[in-house]
From TrEMBL, chain A:
Keywords: Membrane, Transmembrane, Transmembrane helix. The chain crosses the membrane at residues 6-27. This is Uncharacterized protein. Residues 46-92 are annotated as: Disordered.
UniProtKB/TrEMBL annotation, chain B:
InterPro entries: Cyt_c-like_dom, Cyt_c-like_dom_sf, Cyt_c_oxidase_monohaem-su/FixO. This is Cytochrome C oxidase, mono-heme subunit/FixO. Coiled coil: none annotated. Keywords: Heme, Iron, Membrane, Metal-binding, Transmembrane, Transmembrane helix. GO terms for molecular function: electron transfer activity; heme binding; metal ion binding. The lineage of its organism: Bacteria, Pseudomonadati, Planctomycetota, Planctomycetia, Kolteriales. Residues 51-194 form the Cytochrome c domain. The chain crosses the membrane at residues 6-28. It holds the Pfam family FixO. It comes from Kolteria novifilia.
TrEMBL record, chain C:
Residues 44-497 form the Cytochrome oxidase subunit I profile domain. Keywords: Electron transport, Membrane, Respiratory chain, Transmembrane, Transmembrane helix, Transport. One of its GO terms (cellular component) is membrane. One of its GO terms (biological process) is electron transport coupled proton transport. This is Cytochrome oxidase subunit I profile domain-containing protein.
Length: 92, 204, 497
């Protein structure tokens, strides 16, 4: 049985150290900065934020007041360089 | 974040931790369980499943009895397994060391069968019940396993193991219903379901 | 592309748009053959699984139904239903969606499309052989692993090929950022083969001793839902909800925290299926703790999706994809909170061994996963076939039949199961009374199953029409990028600077 306890405690320590190391690394290399930008990476100039990309066939989409995107909310986003998708994050 | 290998490491570690906890550690704890003697009993329990019962275990597994029946008795005070007469003690890991596959079950559309061999020791009852559960238990929703039985013409005397069907289930005269080898095996397996012997970790 | 070439184009906003539209259309096109193969096969198995479901459901309240066919006896029909749904429908539609998402999010064409079609062929042959094996009397009574053992290596091999293609595509990525959906997919593609191989080896090929089989079994079966289906469903929701409504997810932090919490806790939750069973107490407690901790990842997902959609909720009226996926996402929250509660010993004492659990399982695999996949298919398929869906009315019918059907299913069995559990725990209630009590609810379940079947038939019909390019030709409002059109506009230059 003793061997098992060694394995368990050993791995708990190993995993714990790994987690702490990963966290320290993440802080050091600024992984948490401009985090929210990642969320914008799925949009591009052709399918930009604020445009709907699906609808029922043969029906007109929602009236403007429904789609209306409140500009304030959008401006909070700090989007990446609007011309080129993704690159602004890659070069950081 | 654009470091693929890092995500991979995390994915690997989280998974390894669960494998270690739910697969490896129980393995070390339980893989070497053996039959054991308790108090005054002369032989060790449980006994290996053998012979006809082994074939029956295969039938039980193949026809999916497990999806309506469990084979486990929960501890006293947790549910009403004792009060329903499903067993005199909870079942423990050692009870299952010879089962392949282990069919604990997760559904009780029908009663628990961990000790059915003790509760219902009659071979005739089991055959009638399996042939058509409505004969012995009116209103039952258990399926009929009539395909495990054979209809044959009576030559001379009726066979010894022919089912004694009540009137409303009678078949045409001159014919009889007899269990096939598989039906006999299944009943042998059911009668072997006895987990009432004492074990060191589960005295009654 | 060389900078010199790119520099020759003057990047007006229109051309910029056209460039990205063309790139996206080209990547979608690279996934067309394998992804449509997976979809078509999965829709086929959906119909097979539905038929078996109805048979099994009816047999439960009308045991004489088809009773003379040994191959359709309840235990086998029910298991064939589960396995065709699990490996034929959910696993496969999930693979199709994953491959499409991986290519799209990596902004790289899918690797080895023909090999993938081969793998799909192998996968389907294995599922077919498995289903025949189960019905024909080769079944193993091991939940979620009923297929005869020889099927396992075939499925595992096909899966590894598929996962390799996905990973290679991921390696080709042009997009600098790894979006949260990719994290989930990465997890799913890695976790499934490990789970599946370990479970098969330890239960069927080199069986471990006694109840260890049961713990391995539930480690696998629970993780099949938690570490394979759930990540795929969430990956799809995390991509398509923002994409459809045109809003980034509310909090990207939460989405990442949610991912790690799911990876860690879901992993260990499986043994709560054995509460009260002959297992070491520490093992069960460990799983209960993990199950309750699942509230963290679920909470993050729920908050995130809620906050993303909150001001745009009415858009579900205008988008089929959104409607199905929002239904799925809400069900995910419901099923997970229910699951955490159900793992508590006091609740489990009643709910265990009853129809309550069956209802819970369908809330997860159907109301969450399957509905999310329907939504994804409504988005993906037209972009691959370059053809709009034939009828908005049929899409709505599909939605209401499936949403209504699964709600009816869930409510009737949850109710029945809870009281069934109460009565089972009261030894004064004769067993046959419990059987009789559940009958009306079991009949209701069959009605629900028929509703679901109608929904599936409608969907299959729409899907076939779409593959065959039937119906009025329409291109709007789904935006169907056409590679050639954009090429005419901007030539074949490289990326905008």
């Amino acid at each position: 049985m003793h061997a098992v306890y060694w394995v368990i405690y050993g791995t708990v320590i190993l995993f714990g150290v790994t987690v702490v190391a990963a966290f320290v690394w993440a802080i050091r290399t600024h992984q948490f900065q401009k985090f929210q930008q990642g969320a914008v990476s799925i949009f591009d100039p052709d399918e930009p934020v604020g445009e709907m990309t699906d609808g029922f066939p043969g029906e007109s989409g929602p009236p403007p007041e429904v789609l209306d995107c409140d500009q304030d909310e959008l401006s909070k986003l700090d989007p990446p360089d609007p011309t080129v998708k993704g690159t602004s994050i890659r070069h950081e | 974040m654009n470091h693929g290998p890092l995500i991979f490491l995390g994915v690997f570690f989280t998974f390894a931790s669960s494998w270690l906890a739910l697969v490896f550690t129980p393995y070390v704890q339980l893989q070497h369980l053996t039959a054991a003697k308790s108090g005054e009993t002369a032989s060790s329990y449980p006994r290996p499943i053998a012979g006809l019962a082994l074939v029956g275990q295969r039938v039980y597994s193949r026809d999916g009895c497990m999806y309506c029946h469990t084979q486990q008795v929960r501890p006293e005070g947790f549910g009403a397994d004792f009060e329903r007469g499903w067993g005199p003690r909870r079942t423990v890991a050692r009870d299952y060391i010879y089962d392949r596959p282990v069919m604990l079950g997760t559904m009780r559309t029908g009663p628990d069968l961990a000790n059915i061999g003790v509760r219902q020791p009659s071979v005739e009852w089991h055959h009638l019940h399996l042939y058509n559960p409505r004969i012995t238990s009116p209103g039952s929703i258990m399926p009929s396993y009539a395909f495990l039985y054979r209809k044959q013409k009576i030559v001379g005397q009726p066979s010894d193991d022919a089912l004694e069907l009540p009137e409303e289930y009678a078949i045409e005269p001159g014919y009889e219903i007899v269990p096939t080898e598989e039906a006999r095996a299944l009943v042998a397996y059911l009668l072997r379901q006895d987990r009432t012997y004492p074990l060191p970790e589960a005295e009654q | 592309m060389s900078d010199a070439v790119a520099a020759t184009v003057e990047w007006t906003p229109e051309k910029r748009r056209a460039y990205f539209a063309r790139e996206r259309a080209g990547i979608d096109a690279s996934t067309r053959l394998p992804v449509l193969t997976f979809f078509a096969a999965s829709v086929f198995w959906l119909l097979v699984g539905t038929t078996l479901a109805i048979i099994a459901s009816v047999k439960m309240h009308w045991p004489e139904f088809l009773e003379s066919f040994s191959w359709l006896t309840f235990g086998r029909a029910r298991s064939a239903h589960l396995d065709t749904m699990a490996y034929g429908w959910t696993a496969q539609v999930g693979l199709g969606v994953s491959l499409w998402l991986i290519a799209r999010l990596a902004r790289a064409p899918l690797r080895w499309p023909r090999l993938l079609v081969g793998a799909a062929g192998l996968w389907n042959a294995a599922v077919l052989a498995g289903a025949i094996g189960v019905l024909g009397g080769q079944m193993q009574s091991v939940e979620w692993l009923e297929f005869p053992p020889f099927v396992a290596p075939l499925l595992a091999l096909a899966f590894v090929v598929i996962a390799m293609s996905a990973l290679t595509t991921f390696g080709d990525r042009q997009e600098g950022h790894i979006y949260v959906s990719q994290w989930y997919l990465f997890g799913a593609l890695f976790w499934f083969p490990w789970l599946y191989v370990v479970a098969n080896v330890l239960i069927l090929f080199q069986p471990v001793r006694g109840v260890l089989q049961a713990s391995v079994n539930w480690w696998f079966a629970h993780n099949y839902l938690g570490l394979y289906l759930t990540p795929i469903g969430l990956a799809s929701a995390y991509y398509l909800i923002p994409k459809v409504i045109g809003r980034p997810v509310y909090s990207y932090y939460l989405s990442i925290i949610g991912f790690w919490a799911l990876a860690f806790f879901y992993n260990s939750a499986g043994i709560h299926h054995l509460i009260g069973g002959p297992m070491p107490a520490w093992l069960i407690t460990y799983s209960i703790v993990a199950s309750v901790m699942m509230l963290i990842p679920v909470g993050t997902v729920a908050i995130n999706h809620h906050m993303t959609t909150v001001n745009h909720f009415r858009l579900v009226l205008y988008s089929p994809t959104l409607r199905f996926i929002v239904f799925g996402a809400m069900s995910y929250t419901a099923v997970s909170v229910q699951g955490a509660l159900q793992s508590l010993r006091t609740v489990n004492e009643v709910s265990h061994f009853t129809h309550y659990t069956v209802a819970h399982a369908h809330l997860g695999v159907y109301a969450f996963f399957t509905m999310t996949m329907f939504g994804s298919l409504y988005y993906i398929v037209p972009r691959l076939t370059k053809w709009e869906w034939a009828s908005a009315r049929l899409i709505r019918l599909h939605f209401w039949m499936t949403a209504g059907g699964i709600m009816l299913y869930f409510l009737s069995l949850t109710w029945a199961g809870w009281y069934q559990g109460q009565m089972l725990n009261d030894a004064n209630v004769p067993f046959m009374d419990i059987v009789k009590y559940t009958l009306p609810y079991l009949r209701t379940r069959s009605i629900a199953a028929v509703m679901l079947a109608v929904g599936h038939l409608v969907f299959a019909y729409l899907f076939v029409l779409n593959l065959l390019h039937r119906g009025e030709p329409r291109r709007d409002p789904t935006i169907l990028g056409d590679v050639k059109e954009y090429r005419d506009m901007i030539g074949s230059e490289g990326a905008p600077q």
